[in-house]
Amino acid sequence: MIRCVSCGAEYDDDEVIYTCEKCGSVLELVSDIDVSKDIFDGRRDTLWKFKECIPVDESKIVSLDEGGTPFCKCDKLGDELGVNLYVKVEGSNPTGSFKDRGMTVGMTKAMELGVSTVGCASTGNTSASLAAYAARAGLRCIVFLPSGKVALGKLAQAMFHGAEVMSINGNFDEALEAMTALALEKHLYLLNSINPYRLEGQKTIGYEILRDLGWQSPDRIILPVGNAGNISAIWKGVSEFYNAGFVKDLPMMTGIQAEGACPVTNAFKKGERRVVPVENPETIATAIRIGAPVSDIKALNAIYDSNGYSETVTDEEILDAQKLLARTEGIGVEPASAASIAGLKKLVDQGVIDKGETITCVVTGHLLKDPNTAIDACTKPTEVDADIDTLRKLLMNK
Ligand code: F0G
User: Fold this and answer.
1) Ligand 1 proximity of 66 Cβ (cutoff 6 Å)
2) Which of 77, 161, 267, 390 could bond to 272 as cystine, CB 3.0-4.6 Å?
3) Does pTM surpass 0.90?
4) Main-chain dihedrals φ then ψ at residue 358, nearest 5 degrees
């Protein structure tokens, strides 16, 4: 069953519907978990090991073996900050971001519904993922990208997997509005995170974190927030497993935004349950360059209900954290993902995070998604002939 998160109106699972017909709010799938957690044991470690908890037709699954991502204990960085730190590395998914979790489920639903065309607006990763899954499913794929604001790796993926790419003169919010209008006219099946099936895939990040910790909850999960789907999804996942009795505690959901694109943090600081859109969002972390998040209600509910928090970080803090994670722990992430680490650092400094807390930072996309920003943050390699004497001198002088 699909249910409106605001007015509770109910819709059939097979209705192609993105927002509530009665009140216009966002929708979610309601599913009961009536299995024992032992049945997950011994299955291959993809997100489909949780198939009983994902409300789609198993015979239609379109998968690239997403999920089951690394869960790295980061003692060097954790010790430096005085916390017990784990990093969930979502860049290890097939197309290099967490979007693949949402897309495997969303594309499976698309096959169930028998659609021929899928589409999304994207800051990059959603389009890369959609393009790959549409190729695997054999469907036509249309993506709208904000012109000039998509990192190179993501653009390459969307184009190379054969999506029809439109470069929109406008930002993500405008591109999404246009794409949604076309979906409502039934030209295509919309696979942005306003589609509740997307979040059914992404909730498995929450499942896996609990499982990875030996069926315990961390004190806190920290992640970057853009369109606000992922924080909502992870909260749904951990809540489902908590309600099923698989764990005894729930984590504080902590959403980090870039200072130039922070409607959710603004709303949180004022105690509001809806955002006031940011007109001209700007940040180097282009993945989260979003001013009007569609899942604001769900995200703010997640933060309040979990006794969580939201904070902003500057572009400089993001770039510093990106480098810190790469050079201290060997984990390469794109700028948006580093917002979680930057946020962790800031909240430890502010005393919002207590010493000794067990924290999971979700890092959402791979370093190689945005090679230009990575190269710009480093000193250029020295150009030199392959002469051993010169090279020896250079090395010794370092
Ligand atoms: N991190 C990365 C790497 C992302 O690509 C996104 C969103 C987020 C974090 C934020 O997640 O939107 O669920 O709050 N990227 C979308 C896209 C908007 O089009 O790829 P969110």
Assistant:
1) no
2) 267
3) yes
4) -90, 120
